Amino acid sequence: MKILVVSPVFWPEAFRVNDLVAALVEAGHEVEVLAGMPNYPEGRFHQGYGWRGPMEEQHEGARILRFPVRPRGKGRALELMVHYATWVVGACLRLLTVSRKDWDVVFVCQTSPVSAALPGLLARWLSGAPAAIWVQDLWPDIVQATGVVTHPWLLKAIGWFSNKIYRSFDRVIAQSEGFRTALGERGIAAERLTCIHNWAEELYGVEPLARLRVSPEPWRGGFVLMFAGNLGRVQGLPTLLDAAERLKSHPRIHWVFLGDGAMADWMRKEITRRSLESCVWMLGRYPVEKMPEFFAGADALLMSLGRGKALSLTIPTKLQSYLAAGRPILGSVDGEAARVIEDSGAGWVAPAEDPKALAELVLRLANTGLAERQAMGQAGRAYWERLFQRDGCLREIQGNLKQLLPTGGSAGEGRLSLATIQVMLQRTRRAGPQAVPAAGNRKGGNR
């Protein structure tokens, strides 16, 4: 297959779509990626990128079609709106400059916002190819959960717009069962809707975590709780600091945060205001390749989200990495993420935004024997091996894309790509009218 991947984020930005593209190329597919100039999470162009390019490059055998975008800046509302708008406009203009629009399938990785899927629909129209959307953020639920939009009429308008986009795709792939249920309630037919979970990075399966060496740090010797990932508005960070403040009289309990985001500055100020410098540590952002080494030094991994319907339907991608790491997990979450933690046996869960309940779980786990904690970690890793391994999830996505082809007998059946039409016309001109079969005699039936 020749596949166009449309994604608001892509290498060198660290997202699961990078794994997907590499796997598609490895499987023998020809892949092009439509992506803007990388600027996440710093909010400025990565080194070597800018308004002038590069407009085209190669990565893992895939051809990347770049275009300039206004960087995210510090993530303020107006900055993000401008960034999102320039991404859509830039992506659509870049598509129009592509000389050969002969893709067999268009695949959209839909993070936020949902409007990022619009260039994918344009590519679908230009090529005549079927299109699939991989829903990572459910709209408008996510904007309601973050509090960015509160007016009912505006939420209703965004909901209408989001549903029109989701219904326009031949295949809708949800990242959780909660997403699949919610999308089904919006009128997407069951045969066009499926759930494929995200996976943990492949590096967790290369070497057992316990064998990785960890350098000494000031908190060694205590009970280390570790949070890794985006320090954003929906991550429930106030709950974690509230729980840390409740436990600051327990000097052996340390809270370690890896990552960066819109709430990082607020956290630093709160740590100082609450006098938590001796028990809360912010280390900043590190490459994903370093995470197993950090996790090896943790006694438990923290998973937290705010409260809200959209967040309760989400399985954050780092949860798969936590499970693969083989460490106990403490959650301050509701819904799907809580279900995974409890079903796996990897840890315990407090309700979202309940610091008192979370603090009680931390004390309980800190007083639990090492053998029991190790058993929890092993149960989580076994659960990851069953449900969230990279190769299995990637095979499912490839299978769904193949089903969209005319020979796949699925949602894309009967739709000819532009390249196929051109080939048929060329053969017809060379062979004459007798080469064109009657419609009723074409292989596969009428089109």
From TrEMBL:
Pfam families: Glyco_trans_4_4 (PF13579), Glycos_transf_1 (PF00534)
One Gene Ontology MF term: glycosyltransferase activity
InterPro entries membership: Glyco_trans_1, Glyco_trans_4-like_N
Residue span, Glycosyl transferase family domain: 223-381
Domain Glycosyltransferase subfamily 4-like N-terminal: 16-199
Matches recorded under PANTHER family: BLL3647 PROTEIN, GLYCOSYLTRANSFERASE
Protein name stated in the entry: Glycosyltransferase family 4 protein
Organism expressing this protein natively: Candidatus Geothrix skivensis
Source lineage: Bacteria, Pseudomonadati, Acidobacteriota, Holophagae, Holophagales
